[in-house]
Every structure is written in C-alpha cells, then in structure tokens.
C-alpha cells in the first residue's frame, strides 16, 4: 500500500466528536484513526473524502489498557 505521508501520533489532534485522532488531508478533510484501531495495532489512517492514506507512527504499547484488553478505557500517550 502506498502512503501519502508518515505522521507522528504527537502531531495529530484528538477529535472528541469523531472519537479519533485526526490530521489535515490536502483535500480539505481529515485523516482519521480511532483509539480502537490504535489498540489493535493499526497504523493506517484514512481520509473519508479521498483515496489518500497516511502511516501513523506510534508505540502500540502506549494504547494498551492496563489489563491488556481492548475497550473504552482511558488512553495516555507518553511524550517523546
């Protein structure tokens, strides 16, 4: 899969309404990746308006719950 760019999770913005991390797409919409996708180890964020995708650079361990299960827990991202 060809990606448009690689973006650090720290450069993305948490969007409460979408319940996803977002990043501005050149088409004017937002690349999006949810906490659940991050917890599952997904690293590709999609733009819902065009065919572009980005690779999200992050540490998957930062998004695991304390019990190791996925779900609606609180996520804490460590500063680099």
TrEMBL record:
Keyword terms, alphabetized: Iron, Metal-binding
Reactions it catalyzes: 2 [3Fe-4S](0)-[protein] + 2 Fe(2+)-[Dph3] + NADH = 2 [4Fe-4S](1+)-[protein] + 2 [Dph3] + NAD(+) + H(+); [3Fe-4S](1+)-[protein] + Fe(2+)-[Dph3] = [3Fe-4S](0)-[protein] + Fe(3+)-[Dph3]
Gene3D superfamilies: DPH Zinc finger
InterPro entries: DPH3/4-like, DPH_MB_dom, DPH_MB_sf
Keyword Iron: yes
Pfam families documented for this protein: Zn_ribbon_CSL (PF05207)
GO biological process: protein histidyl modification to diphthamide
GO molecular function: metal ion binding
Similarity annotation: Belongs to the DPH3 family.
Name the UniProt record assigns to this protein: Diphthamide biosynthesis protein 3
Organism: Galdieria sulphuraria (Red alga)
Biological classification of the source: Eukaryota, Rhodophyta, Bangiophyceae, Galdieriales, Galdieriaceae
């Amino acid at each position: 899969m060809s990606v448009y760019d690689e973006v650090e999770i720290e450069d993305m913005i948490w969007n409460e309404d979408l319940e996803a991390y977002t990043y501005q797409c050149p088409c004017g919409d937002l690349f999006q990746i949810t906490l659940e996708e991050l917890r599952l180890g997904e690293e590709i964020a999609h733009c819902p308006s065009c065919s572009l995708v980005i690779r999200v650079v992050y540490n998957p361990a930062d998004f695991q719950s304390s019990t190791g299960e996925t779900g609606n827990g609180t996520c804490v991202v460590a500063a680099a």
